[in-house]
Automatic annotation (TrEMBL):
Gene source species: Galdieria yellowstonensis
Example of a GO biological process term: fatty acid metabolic process
Keyword tags: Apoptosis, Cell membrane, Cell projection, Cytoplasm, Fatty acid metabolism, Hydrolase, Lipid metabolism, Membrane, Mitochondrion, Mitochondrion inner membrane, Transit peptide
Location in the cell: Cell projection, Ruffle membrane; Cytoplasm; Mitochondrion inner membrane; Mitochondrion intermembrane space
Catalytic activity entry: decanoyl-CoA + H2O = decanoate + CoA + H(+); dodecanoyl-CoA + H2O = dodecanoate + CoA + H(+); (5Z,8Z,11Z,14Z)-eicosatetraenoyl-CoA + H2O = (5Z,8Z,11Z,14Z)-eicosatetraenoate + CoA + H(+); hexadecanoyl-CoA + H2O = hexadecanoate + CoA + H(+)
A GO MF term: hydrolase activity
Matching InterPro entries: HotDog_dom_sf (IPR029069), THEM4/THEM5_acyl-CoA_thioest (IPR052365), Thioestr_dom (IPR006683)
Descriptive protein name: Acyl-coenzyme A thioesterase THEM4
Positions of the Thioesterase domain: 105-177
Family per similarity comment: Belongs to the THEM4/THEM5 thioesterase family.
EC numbers, comma separated: 3.1.2.2
C-alpha cells in the first residue's frame, strides 16, 4: 500500500482519539484580544445544544497527524470545535488573523473554502465512516474581514450508500452570512469494512 493509500485509515483513528482526549476546554493559549469574544459567544452555542470537543490547535505527541492539519494548525487561524450530539452538526468557532489575506483586508476565498471543508468534513467523519470530499460548491456572499471571529457550521444532509451530501455555512457572530457550501463526500472503496 502506498503512503497516499494509507493516509485515510491512519488519520481517522487519530482524529477520533484527539476529540476524545481533548474535551471541554477552551484553549488557554488563545490571545487575549479575541478570547473574550470567544467566551461571549460560546455560551450561546452551548445553549443551542453544542458542546466543546477539542482544542486541536494544541495537539502534541502522537497526534501529529492532527497537528499537521492545514486549517487547524494554521498559525493565523484558531479554532474551537463544537459538536451537537442530537444531529451531529459541527461548529468551528474560529478567529481568522492577518495572514489569510486574499483581497486587501479580507480573507482569501481558498482559506474560506478550506475552513468550510474542514468543518463539514469533521461533521461527516464524526457521524459515520471515513469519507473524502469529491465535490464542493461555495457561494461567497460577503467578504470576510481579516482579524475577526467567524462561526462555521457543518452538517450532514443525506447519506446514500458510499455517498454523503453535506452542507456548511460561515457567518459573522451576529448571524450575517459570509459563505455557504454544498459538498459531496465519497467513502473510498479501499477503506470499506471487510465482511
Ligand atoms: C485530520 C482530520 C481532519 C478532518 C478534516 C479533513 C478535511 C479534509 C477534507 C478534504 O479536503 S479531503 C481531500 C480532497 N479530496 C480528495 O483528495 C479525494 C480525491 N478522490 C478520491 O481519492 C476518490 O475519488 C475516492 C477515493 C474518494 C473515491 O474513489 P473510489 O474509487 O473509492 O470511488 P469511485 O470512483 O468508485 O466512486 C464511487 C461513487 O462516487 C462517485 N464519485 C466519485 N467522485 C465523484 C465526483 N468527483 N463527483 C461526483 N461523484 C463522484 C462515483 O461516480 C461513484 O458513484 P456510483 O457509485 O453511483 O457509480
Amino acid at each position: 500500500m502506498s503512503s497516499v493509500d494509507a493516509h485515510p485509515t491512519i488519520v481517522y483513528p487519530h482524529y477520533v482519539r484527539a476529540l476524545d482526549e481533548e474535551k471541554a476546554q477552551l484553549p488557554s493559549s488563545f490571545p487575549r484580544e479575541y478570547s473574550e469574544e470567544f467566551q461571549h459567544i460560546l455560551p450561546k452555542l452551548l445553549q443551542r445544544g453544542f458542546h466543546i470537543l477539542t482544542k486541536l490547535n494544541n495537539q502534541k505527541g502522537n497526534l501529529s497527524n492532527i497537528s499537521k492539519n492545514f486549517v487547524l494548525s494554521h498559525p493565523h487561524i484558531h479554532v474551537v470545535i463544537l459538536r451537537r450530539a442530537l444531529d451531529g452538526a459541527v461548529i468551528y468557532l474560529a478567529y481568522v488573523g492577518s495572514h489569510v489575506q486574499g483581497p486587501s483586508g479580507f480573507m482569501h476565498g481558498g482559506a474560506t473554502a478550506a475552513l468550510l471543508d474542514d468543518c463539514v468534513s469533521s461533521a461527516v467523519l464524526l457521524s459515520g465512516p471515513f469519507a473524502m470530499t469529491v465535490q464542493m460548491n461555495v457561494q461567497y456572499r460577503k467578504p470576510v474581514p481579516l482579524n475577526s471571529v467567524v462561526i462555521v457550521e457543518g452538517y450532514v444532509e443525506q447519506t446514500n450508500g458510499r455517498k454523503t451530501v453535506a452542507g456548511g455555512k460561515m457567518y459573522h457572530p451576529d448571524g450575517a452570512l459570509y459563505a455557504e457550501a454544498t459538498l459531496l463526500f465519497v467513502r473510498p472503496r479501499l477503506v470499506e469494512p471487510k465482511m
